[in-house]
Design a protein that fits this description.
By secondary structure, the protein is mostly helical. The protein is built from one helix and two strands, in the order ββα. The chain has a two-stranded parallel sheet. The longest helix is centred in the last third of the chain and has 35 residues. The two termini are about 20 Å apart.
């Protein structure tokens, strides 16, 4: 059983997100899709690293907001 499900798929581009029945909180975080990046290898790598950093920042933001709350609830 999942409390949170985070999807990053792009349904607007025809990419279907998986279904998780009974999920209490479904979050959709949109990021650029690295497979669609143009340019040479070094340009693609640089843009992929930007997306990686954006994902890291979003996860850290989520954890800062949610993890203390979940921890407090578990202690009760």
């Amino acid at each position: 059983l999942f409390t949170y499900v985070v999807t990053v798929c792009d349904e607007a581009s025809g990419e279907r997100c998986p279904v998780f029945p009974g999920v209490a909180h479904r979050l959709h975080w949109s990021f650029a899709y690295p497979a669609g990046f143009g340019g040479d290898w070094s340009e693609k790598l640089a843009r992929t690293r930007v997306v990686r950093d954006e994902i890291r920042a979003k996860v850290e933001e989520f954890c800062a907001a949610i993890c203390p709350t979940v921890s407090q609830q578990a202690q009760k």
